[in-house]
Inverse folding.
């Protein structure tokens, strides 16, 4: 077996445990260290890695090949750029950052240092999602006409009250769209492309003491003329699976989490009936009502891909530039909601 890719974590909040568990499941990966502002020693004792007192000391370690950034959303850029400048590969939790300007700075650092900048969008690794992507690439939908994403989830008031950064523009970067809806929006842009124009409304309807939206609706226009809708919420009790719908003049698909619920094309092909029969989804989990209700499988697949990309000196399945698309779309939605006018995605 080749030498393991050695990982360190920056941040030891909820999602860091998923990263640590996923790394342990990969024979070619090893967690060696972590740093954090809080809960560091308890985390390191649990996961069997070294506790570093600072980002600087962590990045100075010669036994760290790659760094997972698992800090709050609005604090991804600084440690990611520092790691890239130190010659470390980086895997950054979603959203990769909360503004396109910060993301572009991260991309520039990766290019300058010749290191990999990857982003966590584990939904792309599901079998159902990959089948939809292959159908798009094969032209089975014909001309895309209507492409939409729906994330009607539920979060309690206690969820927002549990951490000071949640529900803030400064650190969360937004609400139901930037934090929860970003996965479905990434899938939508992966399948249909980045919309060129959005018209949106956002509101805070069922939570207190948050500055951001818990309910959002946006109308989309894509480059080829296709239209679409994004609905995102943490205000819809009890919450249900995220859904992406892709339709064209020769076929339509509905994907719920990673399960294909509808699959119909004018050109019936071998395997279509089996797909309609179900069982295509991966056990990745959606978190419709509980943010921790996800398995490690999606992260395991993504981290394993990063390990292979490092060894093979190639880009990972989800490079940082790909992760920019969902954030750019969400930022345009916020701009449209603020101005009351259509906004272009940049």
């Amino acid at each position: 077996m080749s030498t393991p890719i050695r990982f360190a974590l920056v941040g030891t909040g909820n999602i860091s445990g998923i990263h640590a568990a996923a790394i342990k499941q990969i024979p070619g990966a090893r967690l060696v260290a972590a740093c954090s502002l809080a809960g560091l020693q308890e985390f390191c004792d649990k996961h069997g890695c070294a506790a570093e007192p600072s980002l600087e000391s962590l990045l100075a370690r010669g036994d760290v090949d790659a760094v997972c950034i698992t800090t709050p959303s609005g604090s991804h850029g600084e440690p990611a750029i520092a790691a890239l400048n130190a010659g470390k590969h980086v895997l950054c939790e979603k959203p990769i950052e909360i503004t396109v300007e910060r993301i572009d700075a991260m991309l520039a650092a990766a290019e300058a240092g010749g290191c990999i900048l990857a982003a966590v969008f584990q939904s792309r690794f599901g079998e159902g999602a990959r089948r939809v992507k292959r159908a798009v690439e094969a032209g089975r939908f014909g001309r895309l006409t209507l492409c939409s994403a729906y994330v009607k989830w539920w979060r309690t008031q206690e969820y927002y009250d549990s951490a000071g950064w949640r529900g803030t523009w400064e650190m969360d970067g937004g609400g139901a769209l930037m934090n929860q809806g970003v996965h479905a929006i990434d899938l939508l842009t992966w399948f249909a492309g980045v919309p060129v124009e959005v018209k949106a409304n956002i509101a805070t309807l069922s939570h207190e003491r948050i500055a951001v939206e818990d309910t959002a609706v946006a109308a989309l226009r894509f480059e080829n003329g296709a239209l679409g809708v994004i609905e995102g919420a943490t205000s819809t009790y009890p919450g249900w699976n995220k859904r992406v719908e892709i339709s064209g003049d020769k076929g339509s698909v509905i994907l719920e989490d990673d399960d294909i619920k509808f699959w119909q094309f004018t050109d019936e092909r071998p395997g279509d009936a089996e797909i309609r029969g179900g069982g295509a989804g991966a056990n990745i989990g959606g978190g419709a009502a509980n943010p921790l209700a996800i398995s490690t499988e999606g992260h395991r697949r993504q981290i394993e891909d990063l390990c292979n990309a490092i060894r093979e000196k190639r880009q990972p399945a989800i490079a940082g530039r790909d992760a920019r698309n969902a954030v750019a779309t969400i930022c345009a939605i916020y701009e449209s909601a603020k101005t009351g006018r259509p906004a272009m995605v940049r």
Observations:
- The first helix runs from residue 14 to 24.
- The chain has two domains: 5-122+296-319, 127-290+326-344.
